[in-house]
Write a structure and sequence with these properties.
Blueprint lengths: L1 H13 L12 H29 L2 H25 L3 H16 L8 H4 L9 H7 L7 E4 L3 E4 H12 L2 H6 L1 H18 L1 H10 L3 H13 L4 H8 L1
Antiparallel strand pairs: 1-2
Helix pairs in contact: 1-7, 2-9, 3-4, 3-9, 6-7
Length: 226
């Protein structure tokens, strides 16, 4: 089963964990994966996202963004439920129901208009709240920068999509492709500038990942002290 394989991979990777003498034990693997991801980006994602921006005006992309955000609400609901955050769980559930029905599958954010503000979380945040250590830095094929903890969160996300159980694999695949192309298009300026100007793409993508998930210093120190 994919989830079991993910757990096995996690323990295999953490058996060679970060130390003061070797703060990046998977660096060679990571660089190979980064080269693969950059090749996919150059030959597939960048052209696809450029075409997407050309054919979809700002208003359409905003509606697609709302639609994709709405698809994440069931994830937020489950994670808030697991971490016993009842108010946020209720908020996520109501947002999903209202936006799916009144907002036409989420293309209009009616929830925010009636006072239900966005509150995002993830399986990564849930594992962190339950004390699962960050582990080592990893670059995953196609998925990009990650860690051994977040490498577990990814397959959990695949199998924890409540909507996916009703619609099936075609929905999950189409959603993943649309999310990737949309995110690449919305961040094209930053990514193209980074790839063009950076002398060390590996270092900058690693730092950006740590900054995004807030694990750069605190979790690194925890890893070294274990």
């Amino acid at each position: 089963m994919p989830f079991v394989k993910g757990v096995v991979l996690f323990f295999l990777l953490t058996s060679c964990s970060t130390t003061r003498d070797n703060p990046d034990p998977h660096k060679e693997f990571n660089k190979d994966m980064l080269r693969l991801n950059l090749a996919v980006d150059k030959n597939v994602l960048k052209p696809a996202s450029s075409t997407y921006k050309e054919v979809a005006p700002d208003a359409i992309r905003e509606s697609i963004s709302n639609f994709l955000i709405n698809l994440k609400e069931p994830f937020h609901f489950l994670n808030y439920l697991i971490t016993a955050e009842g108010e946020n769980a209720t908020n996520a559930l109501f947002r999903f129901v209202i936006n799916s029905i009144v907002g036409i599958f989420g293309i209009f954010d009616i929830g925010e208009q009636v006072g239900l503000e966005k509150a995002e979380t993830s399986h990564k945040s849930t594992l962190k709240k339950y004390g699962v250590p960050t582990g080592d830095y990893l670059v995953l094929p196609l998925l990009g920068p990650s860690s051994t903890r977040d490498a577990i969160a990814e397959p959990i996300s695949w199998f924890a999509d409540p909507v996916g159980y009703f619609i099936g694999f075609p929905y999950m695949f189409a959603k993943a492709v649309l999310m990737i192309i949309h995110e690449r298009a919305e961040n094209s300026g930053m990514m193209d500038s980074m790839l063009q100007d950076s002398m060390d793409v590996y270092a900058i993508t690693k730092n950006l990942y740590f900054q995004k998930y807030g694990v750069a210093e605190q979790d690194a120190e925890e890893n070294l002290s274990e």
